[in-house]
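@channel sequence for tomorrow's demo:
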Amino acid sequence: MNKLQLPNVTLLCVDCVDVDRAIAIVEHCKTMVDFGAVKVISNQERNYPIVKISPLNTLIMYSVWMLTECHKYIDTDYVLIVQGDGWILNPEQWDNDWLKYDYIGPVFDQEDRVGSGGFSFRSKLLMQATSLAFDSWDGTEETANAIQSKAGCYEDGVISYGFNYFNICPINVANLFAQGGNQNPANHNSKPFGFHRGGRIIDYSNGVVEPSIPDGTLGHQLLNNELVRLMNKYKF
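structure tokens (generated this afternoon):
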């Protein structure tokens, strides 16, 4: 099967907790898609091309970095964000019509609204706009907390609620793009392009996502097992 070609998309993973995890996920995604650029961003060093930044020690610091700094590291028109709990499952499900949107992410766990940022597709234009909406960040936790207080929620919520004048995808597209922790049966799609956490039972060998989360323990264990497998496979 020919690999999916996304020359105007940067694959981006930001991880200051476990860069080996980030490398494994990025390398795995690269087996399925040829991207215009690929960037692992971290404060840690490995025998691997890593873009170095100051450490992001808290979730708030990560959120503020995404809002204020991320755009500086994107050289293409779009970026695909992946994390240690969210990556590509079924590359054949990609739809080029998605390029008309500024933001695509799975429906939030808590409500039927787009969308969770851990596995998400964004335009650089949107990321530039979020950076202009907040004070510049000096990299300190104190300033990050001040910016976060003004933002009112984490970066994906800021985009969903505060930047909905951009072209955020409708829920039906979000469900095709990725599955998360939302348990409304109407939002289930068994073969999404990707996923983001949520404790769902996923067969990582064929990309099939089960519809419900009766007990997230098994789903999280399967995720951890797959992550260990990928980290053992892609060691640098």
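heads up for whoever presents: Residues 68 and 142 are 15 Å apart (CA to CA).
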